Amino acid sequence: MSEYSQDHDPGTVSADTDTVAVVGMSLRVPGSTDPDGFWKSITDGVVSLRAAAPDGGLRAGQIDRFDRFDADLFNMLPAQAAATDPQHRVLTEVAWQALEDAGIDPERATGRIGVFVGCGSETYYREHVLKDEKTVRGLGTEQLALGNSRDFLATGLAYRLGLTGPAITVQTACSTSLVAVHQAIRSLLTYECDIAVAGGATVHLDEEQGYAFTEGGITSPDNRCRAFTEGAAGTVPSSGAGIVVLRRASDLPGTGENARAHLLGSAVNNDGAARMSPTAPSPQGQADVLREALAVAGLEPADVGYVETHGTGTALGDQVELAALAEVYGSRPADSVLALGAVKPNIGHCDSAAGVIGLIKAVLAVETGVVPPTPSQPGDGPDVALGSASFELPRVSRPWPADRPRTAGVSSFGLGGTNCHVLLTAAPRPTGSAEQAPAVRREPHLAVLSAATPEALERKARDLAAWLDGEGAEVPVGELTGTLWHHRRALPERWATVLPADPAKARDRLLAELTALTGNDSRRAVTAPRLAVVLPGQGVPLAGAGAGLATVDDGFAADLAELAAEVGRAGGPDLSDARNWPADDPRLLDTAVVQPLLLILGLAGLRHAERHGLVPELLLGHSVGELTAAAHAGVFSVPDAVAAVVRRGRLMASAEPGAMTAVRAGEETAVRLAAGLEVDVCVLNGPDNTVCGGPEEALAAFEGRCAEAGVRTTRLPVTRAGHSRAMAKAAEEFEEFVATLTLSAPAVPIVSGLTGALLTDAEAVDPAYWGSQLSSPVRFTDAVTALLEAAPDSVLGLHRSHAATAEIRRAALAAQRDLPVVDAAGRAGGDESADWHRALAALWTVGHTPAGPARPARVVALPAYPFADQRHWVAAPEPQPLEARPADAPAPEPVTAADEGGPVTAAAEEPTEETSTAEAVRALWQDTFGITEIRPEDNFFDLGGTSLHAAHLVSVVNDALLVEIRLQDLYENSSLTGFIARAEELAAERDDVALLRLLEEIESEEGQTSHE
Fold it and tell me: What is the pTM of this model?
């Protein structure tokens, strides 16, 4: 990995322990949806504000997707998403993008991630949500408050993204988001959190949102903001959102994350009472916060080459700000020019988000070494006097002076007097290159992709393919695959592929596969999947087994060497170079050699899997493979297991010579054809896959009978008939040997090949079981049935267990089970490393979290997540015309939108005679979830219902149907059909006559009270 140079050029400033790095950022502003597009617009001098409407109406700046949201990605019900303030939603998506830009997956990040954010007013809550009776009835006031109140802005974001540090909402009007950054810096430097997400959002609620101009007010009369020009008359309100991701700079080495800038210091104060009014700015307060920030950063004013101003374009605001800047930054050496900039003429005033957007602009300036312009616009007057001869207002972009530190300041001043100033500098440039990194073995590349839905996965693949064929063409494949694996959230819909080790071939293959990928090519991952591992028995081809993997994996090679040495200590064969034996080596037919070899391959394979994060929760071993499973599960210690298998192999090898043949028929047919011959059924591998064994002459006769009956047979490469009557003496002696060992109950469940069921603790510690296991038939078909009944989510076959895994696939298909069954090693002569990577890829798509590619030296900036283009919106009610009423008529009771803590109720639509109970319940479920098509079998909790949803639904159903359904009734009848049946049952028990009498009494009492 490259190191950060401390001996860097004059364009950067050294980091120290008080430095905070900006490692990621994202924004959404008029005309731009990402920092790159935003920066191009800024440096090109583009004004992204719209012209006034044709009728002369003034229009606020608006952002993309202000009414859209990816509810699936953030696990929100459609009804919840629609009822959530768009500011909360936009900020959630922008924070997701900023974390991706940083290369931080909150689920895997070390340390706590804090949230410091703010937003604009709760207009959507007041004017849309609370005025929609259906929404209030369907979700209830508590859930509505959670999605709309600023009290829950930071905590809601922390919940949706899974962030566990401090979650604090900051509200200081226009300076909100920069104050949030200040608070985040303090939290990082006091170790309250290790990573911080900071920023803000303001979202207007209409595509054509208008605004009013008032003489002497703060808004512009012509839809243009003309900061620091004569005749400037105000600003333009705009929607906008921005997030920066921060981390202590000292924590960066080893993460692969890229510092885009270093924050050197910040300060916050308030103007207090020394001003004309609570909303008037104070030059003294602003000057004080500038000085304090410089002191915190340890800088002199001349060290700063650029200030991103608050720059609202109001006559008073600009004048006060320039006075404060001149007081603090104005006295400078003659050759030290201070460039001033303002983003509001480009995009308008984004209110709560304005400060962080200014910070992002300044980060891009110091990062790229470009001083950005403030755009010239038709109708601009000349620039005002800036207050100092050393100040300039660039109108075109220019390079940052090569001999000046790329250090900048950012100001944000809130209506109400809370001022903030932040100082930043260019981050030290990484030195070194990939060639200086330690050499790594050339292994296949593992590329993964995930999304919330198949449609998003397809769009993500298309975007990545376009990037790979364009600006990402020169990115090393290892950095790309490492970023995808380590620095992106693993979402439920998954796709993975294995690429050749050669970089050029890998790139071509990935581009081709991404281009062809469709949503049908993915697999839906499960949560906490259970893994079963299958270990083969004798008869599999072992020439070269383990050789390819040992070449690229030192841990696997070391395990093989250690276990081979253990076999030698137990008096077994020399297996130290077994992986190099040719296919015709006679030792590969010797039972006394093959069985210990299978054991060490199996144990080394299991250890290798666990080192990669694949821990089996169920084991199935075929014949001697069951002893390997028992050793891994702790029934035998490893030395005892080795000694037992060495003894077992030797005993079986000393039995009378024999042969075995695979018969394409079931047990009944095999027994019938073997009648009268010294031939036994040895293994039941499947309904039409039986292995029989016996002496050569008898077995040849048996094969002749099979041929006459049209039954195909295949000889196996063995010299003894295992699991036959020939093994009776060996079984007795093996039982005696096992009785000398210490046995324990298995720590991992094992499927018994002897009984075809789960191995009991009593069987595991009984020497007689292991003796019988040697000489009795292997009931693998029954064992596979038991494995399927145990319901693992995936099956991994180790070292060439293809015959066993093929039977599991067949049985799963017959049982209509979608069970991924993968092999960790392919056929003899194949590329074991590629096979292992293919297994990792397949298991990752299931939901396992294996160790994958090496962490990249740097995080690659990849295309952003393709959010779903789905509108979620609660429409505001149409304005009603005022109705005249007599002067003496009583005034109507005011309808108030209570605050978060107060009750807001709306009467549910009670079922009429034409509305059945079932229809009413179905409608209430639809209101709760925002889903129009709910099937009778759909489960309340599977649809996304929570305990909060449940409590509210029960209350609404009781009010609508006049029944007394309980929360427990919903838990016990959670399908729509079941809940309807329970509601109908209670409705049938209702005494309508008594209920009507009670209602009449209540109405009568209310009437008397009203009259009094």
Answer: 0.87
